[in-house]
Amino acid sequence: MKLIGSYTSPFVRKISVMLLEKGIIFEFVNESPWLEESEVPRYNPLGKVPALVDDNGQCWFDSAIIADYLELQHTPPAFSPADPLKALQVRQLAKLADGITDAAVLIVREQQRPGNQQSEALLIRCRGHILRGLDRLEQEARDGQWLHGDTLNLADIATGCMLGYLNFRRIVPDWCVERPALVKLAEDLFQRASFARTVPAA
Ligand SMILES: N[C@@H](CCC(=O)N[C@@H](CS)C(=O)NCC(=O)O)C(=O)O
């Protein structure tokens, strides 16, 4: 299996963490999607990472689809409940974490533009998405160790990668203030070997 991605992408990190947790051996192909000569569009017409090439040579893209694909391989541990409604609930929470990540990535891109070309309205809107999303995840994290059920799941992994990205890019750096359940979740996740091995490189 080949994972096409960059070391700083939180979406790529999510897939790396899943592969490491499941003990699936994979080759990491480091490709920046932002370079003119990027090979990423060969794997994903949308030009985004991650993409995954499976052992049959089929290429999968979008981290949510790749996560579904990996779950379909039934390599333990499962990160999605067997019950379809519970599985949908977990995917919705993972989608929420991914949506926060999308907003954070947008802020990073916007802030890379010259100051006088940045849209203050866009930055405020993205910040709103992030804060409301974090508040919802905080509520969900209050019961039990994990966001859903009593085992590590896809929503936890997506949330850990999102919080790691907020820390890495210093977006909403005070996210941890008054969100103790998310802080605890992050502490638990960041201690795992899969997270320690995928800390974003500056
Ligand atoms: N929904 C996509 C988002 C992936 C994404 O936004 N990746 C960023 C890197 S963090 C990217 O490749 N951006 C390149 C671009 O937008 O052209 C997923 O979950 O895989």
TrEMBL record:
One Pfam family this sequence matches: GST_N_2
UniProt organism field: Candidatus Pantoea multigeneris
PROSITE patterns named among the record's database cross-references: GST_CTER (PS50405), GST_NTER (PS50404)
Boundaries of every GST N-terminal domain copy: 1-78
InterPro entries named among the record's database cross-references: Glutathione-S-Trfase_C-like, Glutathione-S-Trfase_C_sf, Glutathione_S-Trfase, Glutathione_S-Trfase_N, Thioredoxin-like_sf
Domain GST C-terminal as annotated: residue spans: 83-202
Source species, domain of life: Bacteria
Protein name listed in UniProt: Glutathione S-transferase
